[in-house]
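Write out the 3D structure for:
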Amino acid sequence: MEPFPQLAHAGLNGWLPVIFLALMGISMLLYVVLDGYDLGVGILLRRADDAQKDVMISSIGPFWDANETWMVLGVGILLVAFPMAHGMILGALYLPVALMLIGLILRGVAFDFRVKARAQHKPLWNWVFYGGSVTASFSQGVMLGLYITGFQNDWPQIGFSIITGLCLCAGYSLLGASWLIMKTTDQLQQRAVRWAYSTFWFTVVGIIAISVVTPLVSPRIFQKWFSLPNIFLLAPIPIATAALFFTTFRSLKRLPTRLKDGNEYGAWVPFGCTVAVFMLAFYGLAYSLFPFLVVDKINIWQAASAPESLKIILVGAVIVLPTIFGYTIYAYRVFWGKARELTYY
């Protein structure tokens, strides 16, 4: 019996929902990684002095607004390609989504006003930027926890969602600190290493918690991971994740000595390894949930728009996606290098 009968002899119409699921997944993964590090920088902002705050903001200045494009694209694909799932998911996540949007709005306002405001008002806008970053990050973690548990409202599930929110804040902080290690110098760079180390273990706890809870949510997911021969075929994922965490830990231990001597060798390792961990975690979650958009309730073929609509949307996606990719690569290439204090002329 075919595991996915919708794909058997269905041609392009059967594969269209899979294609759009992949596009949505790529968009959300890029959002988590790219906007994750600049949200992390915002969370870490309160730990720095005034001069370091300006450099931290400068390090994300050319990128942060464009990074959010990927979330807009991912949610847009969910809306137009899977309208049934869009209504159920956003309806169940109404409160954390609203809080996330409030946090992102506060970040956007504070980003401009903190530089242009008078000196006595600047600390207020720093706190607004920090608060918006924490609110948006925590809300996204709560949304992830609720989504994994199938939108259950029992206290254990709510508690797990809160823990996921806190751990995602730590994960974003690790991304942000690792970004600052690459983009800054001197005392701020040294402090970024300490910030990365202080958030490292909370990130590990978050990854482990999600990895343990996800198979317990559904017998189908448990079967996908722990039946033979799947358990052996999938073993490289947790092994690779553990190896990346070990590499990150070892790098953070060695970097302070190297950086004091002006040696930048390996400064990129914590960021690269953390990005790889997020990618592996995302892949594991996607494997667990496929082909469902809502755990064991709505699959991608049930939620998909009509094939005729998807074909038209696909034409637009073929045009838009390369444009966004091209702009993103160009922006990072142009503004790559060490960050300097943010100034307006």
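The first helix runs from residue 11 to 44.
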